[in-house]
Structures are given as structure tokens and as C-alpha cells.
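Memo to structure team: turn this sequence into C-alpha cells by end of day. - J.P.
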Amino acid sequence: MEFDRRFATEQACREYLFQLRWPDSFTCPKCGGCKAWPRQRGLWLCAGCGYEASVLVGTVFQESRLPLTVWFRAMWLISSQKTGTSAMGLQRMLGLGSYRTAWTLLHKLRRAMIRPGRERLSGVIEVDETYWGGEEEGQPGRKALKKQLIAVAAQEDGSGIGRVRLGTIEDASAKSLHGFIAAAIEPGSRICTDGWTGYASIERLGYQHSIRPLYGERGAAERLLPRVHRVVSLLKRWILGTHQGSVGAEHLDDYLNEFTFRFNRRKSQHRGKLFYRLAQQAVLVPPYPYSAIVKVPGRRTRIHHR
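Reply from structure team:
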């Protein structure tokens, strides 16, 4: 009820986004000027260069035909529910006439769940890989023809799990794994892995490397790398539960973004803070048009309707 009262109008939503995008004062995207006058349709006229700036341009809201009140309601529903929602569920709760609209809105917000310039993990980190959909029969080791390989990094926090990073990788080669580690983990950290050769020589990248060999024992992976395997279990349970398993490889990274956003904020006691973070990041990330969502380079394009 409090949320509905605060964001009942387009103007209220625009003012909130203005404070998030320019917390100190207005900054002209063209000349950097700090003085402007409000215009019609939510525009601001820069006193320095005469440029008409919009608080929505350059954000995930750019060129959207949906009212901001709908966007805000969607962000609240996504952030206030512990497991999130599917596109079909969002369509029903918002009363949208099109499944595609709800699906596109969700993917745009998932892109906003990754903060630009976010800090890498540090300390002691467990790293492993998993397949989305399970390993294929007849494919030895870490080979797969149709399944997508996901790299997972989980930070040790005492006996528990700190922050995590997840991302799809092309294969389990040293090139792919080293690239994931360099992007996700701060140099100087201690990386704990199994004995897979793809992790060899990561010391050259400035990391400490602790190998925990599995020796083919049943359940050894869960025991020796417990945090990363716990994260994998929660990820697959979330995809199978909330999304009924209808996640294609071409959009898997977007779902991993959402899972990471939720997991790293799982201890937050105030759901309003998650809404604030999502809205804050939505004005920082560039636009993500529908054409870019459905045309992922190098992968088949399809939308799952289950």
C-alpha cells in the first residue's frame, strides 16, 4: 500500500529516477552542465547548450511504451518475492495483454541486475563448472554437444557462502576457465578447484591455487567443494521451480544475472532495499532493446512459452 501511494503517477516515478540518476544535481549528457529547466513530457532543457535531456534516455527504460508505473510495479514484484517470477506470472500479476511484453521487460531488468564496474570476488574462492540440463550420454569428461557449460565461483565466508559469480563459458578449456576467473575474481585470491587440467597455471595470472583432487570417489565433489556445489543445487532448483526449466542457452546468462543478484542480497532484511538497488542500476546500464535480446550472436533465437 505504501508503494502504491508513493509511485501512483508517472511524475512520481520520474522524480524518483531523477534522484537516482543525478543524486547531486542535474548533469547534461551532452555538455556536462549542471543547470537546467523542466520542460513538458519529462524533459529538461540544459541552460548551457540548450540540449533537451530525458531521465529515461540511456537507461533500460529508453523507448519503452509501458508507463513507468508498470515498470515500477514490475520491479517491486521481482524484488519483493524471494524466488522472483516467470514471464507468465508477471503478465498475470500486471494484467499485461502480451506475454512477449512481460518476457522482454523481465530480460531488460535482468540486464540491470549487474552493476557496471562491480567489485570482483576476493579471499578464498571455490571454482567449478556445471552443465545446464545435465551431462550428455556418450560424452566423456567435460565435453558436451548440446548442453551449456556454466562456470561458478563461490566465496568462502567462514563455514558459509559469501558472494558468488556465475557465467556461461564455451568449453572447459584453460582459455575459457582462465577468462572467467580473471573477470570474476581479484588477483591475489586463493582459488580452490578440483584437479581438472583447465585450471592449471592460474598462478601465472596472479592467483594462489589450491587443488582438491576428487579421486573418483562418490560424493567427493560435494565434500571437497561444498559451497560451489550448494550454489549449483540452488540455481537448478530455482530454474526448475520458478521458470519450469524453460531457459534456453541463448538467454541463460540473463537468468544467471538474476540468480546472482538475488543470492548476493539474500541476507537483506528489507525488500525495499532490493527495489532501490534494482531501480538504481536500471538508470546506470545502457538500453537493451528487444531486437538485441532475441538476436543473441552465435546462438539460436527462441522464446520459451512453457
